[in-house]
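#onboarding

Welcome to the new folks! Below is a worked example of what a typical request in this channel looks like: someone posts a single protein sequence, and someone else replies with the predicted structure as tokens. Don't worry about understanding the tokens yet, we'll cover that in week two.

Example request:
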Amino acid sequence: MTLILALDFGGTKLAAAVTQLGSRQWLRYERRLSPTGANATTDLEIMRSLIYNLLQGETPTAIGVSFGGPVDFTTGTVRLSHHVPGWENLPLKNLLEQEFGVPASVDNDANVAALGEHRFGAGQEYDSLFYITISTGVGGGWILNGKPWRGNAGMAGEIGHIVVNPAGPVCLCGKQGCVERLASGPYMAQDAKEYLLKPANHFSGKQLRSLVNDDLDLITGKIISDAAAQGDELAINILQGGAWALGVGIGNVANLINPQRFILGGSVTKAGELWWNTVEKTARETALPEIDFEILPAALGDDAPLWGAVALAELEIRSQN
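Example response:
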């Protein structure tokens, strides 16, 4: 039996699963939330305990890993995590290979999820697609000519840092008006909170305020979606602003590379019809009319990075046979 171990180091959650080569079912699956104040050491300890629970004394043939941050794919070194300290230049591939004695492949979560959707999800039978995750951040992963395209230094696909409004608010990366700054969950929540804290706006955002009992620190991207669904005008404006920014990014990418499909995953994609319609409409308006593409939800949902890790391990196994 050829056993594959798949690992997903997310910004807030850790997941691990084992499956058999060629199977579409998990044999065993576990996930944990990363504790508050986590660092690389605590995350690795939790992941190690998940792995030993799952393996039950068996040895995998290969390990595939999805990591929520920039990774040097050729060496399997994590460059950093934007959400968890201590990951700077950590040789994750080497650590896993030393401990388990089998080949490991490590890549950034968007690249891995793109691979997962191409192999098992909404991108099957397509040879060019761009996967975009919109959640804590906004990232992208390419499949071109049926293969992952990582770019010169593994940094291809950073749609989150395409500037769509040069006069817009400042992003974590230091630039103004990036897609991520306008479209990601935490930034939408931050914008809503800042708006509601101004004395002049004391009477706006009624549904938003009532959903968090006036504790503005509790506002999240999900709460903005819920308030928008209840007709809250501020929430609708913020949600549509994020969808507009993403749509402009997608339309520009369509003009530049012309993939067959854009596959969208991540928590913000659960925001409902209004969000999807705005993304679609803006992307079509931004792209040239002659450019043909589809925008679809990810078929694998939150498990896209884990199934992508399986696809990564499969490629490793094939390359050795």
